[in-house]
Write a structure and sequence with these properties.
By secondary structure, this protein is of the alpha+beta class. 29% of the residues lie in helices and 22% in strands. The protein folds into three domains: 290 residues, Vaccinia Virus protein VP39 (Rossmann fold, 3-Layer(aba) Sandwich); 99 residues, no CATH class; 56 residues, Archaeosine Trna-guanine Transglycosylase, Chain: A, domain 4, CATH 2.30.130.60. The strands form four sheets. Strands 5, 6, 7, 8, 9, 10, 11, 12 and 15 form a nine-stranded mixed sheet that branches. Helix 4 packs parallel to helix 5. The longest helix has 23 residues. It is globular, with a radius of gyration of 24 Å.
Amino acid sequence: MLQLPVDFSENMRRLLGEEEYQALAEALQGEPPVSIRVNPWKWQGDGLSASAEPVPWASGAVYLSERPAFTFDPLFHAGCYYVQEASSMFVQCVLRQYVPCACRMLDLCAAPGGKSTLARAALPEGSLLVSNEIIRTRAQVLAENMVKWGHPDVVVTQNAPADFAPLTHFFDVILADVPCSGEGMFRKDAESVAEWSMGNVDVCWQRQRGIVADVWECLKPGGLFVYSTCTYNTWEDEENIRWMVRQLGAEPLPVPVDEAWGIKGDLTEGGQSLPVYRFLPSHVRGEGFFLAVMRKPVGDAVESEQAFWAESVAGNVEKDKKKQKNNKGKGKDAKGKEAKKVVPSYEQCRQWLAVPEMYEWGVSDDTVSAIPLQWSGAVEQLKSELTVLHAGVAVASLKGRDWVPHHSLAMSLNLPSAVFPRVDVDYETAIAYLRHEAVVLDAAVPRGYVLLAYRNVPIGFVKNVGNRANNLYPAEWRIRSGHLPDVPVKVL
């Protein structure tokens, strides 16, 4: 039985009243629900069980009746779906309500990638998403998940919020799912209960204000700031929103919700009620979550929301054109030590992506990368200020004197179907491949680089040498368990 901290219980009784508190406490004793969200580009959703209950505030998302062993589903590794807590999927409603056209968005505290994969699917096409995480190990997991999602208009960075300071007015939208005291994760994570204290709550709300202040100038006037936590107390939630209104001039914005969804609002007493959105496990099928949307003061330069988006899109395009012109011939593959290293031509690699002329190509750290041309100037600016782990599509890696197709290419939505021989493998072979084991292909399969697929979805490359196929799956991503389920795991 989950033992709730005494101070937490007393605070929630004060906020909710005895009856509502008891309902919450009872809900926290239950099993957390399991929910997934499909990748709309890799899976159209027709494979979702008709009996699965949809998540009401997110399209392409359902609750599962039980938690399968996702590790042993090849489609999970192929990026066909993401396992995400249902309450946090509410971000989709915000983006679809307030982002009408292509933009630049920053997901500031993005690991492991749930909200970033959701944002990438919800944003209008032509948008640039920057997904950031400060902790190195978590940033690597974030990069892995964004690569598997497959969209080219993504940059993954590993930086502290303050590192973004030079990028004044760079973003149209910032999402900050700030580190918090984790009260909303109590029934999912026993450690969050053990680590909770009023002292930690006090540290959290102050740190959260510092994070917001660090990146506020990166947001354009008139831009959107989405603030969220997975905690219940008002110090980290409503009081921080009031601080943003008071100190930064932020304007809280309403998000249309269906009353049947069970989402609650402002829990503070007195004063004007804020348009904030609270998910309580006693009222929704999900974990604890808090969200507020705010608009940065516009000033005299922009007179309306419509004008903001029109000017923002035009400004992004114009600035990126200038960056492209200024940076022409000055990429990392054309300067410094990297420019002195002689590498073989990567001309053949250009044909490995659909419409290659839509990208800016370059070589860095023995990797050929392709950046969508419309964002090449912006990406160059990001690289000049931040630690970039991934951008666009990593197309090939240099092995000796040969260019080897990169796993990022296998996951890319823009890999043409006819470039490499393609073989659909059975479940056992797919799992062996994902364990980074050698696989054997039919004798009729051509030698050379071959794209393996499972249920017609690419899972990665091998180099077929005849008697075996050398495995090119990233070793650090491999399935480490030697277990093989008696029945194939099939989520979709």
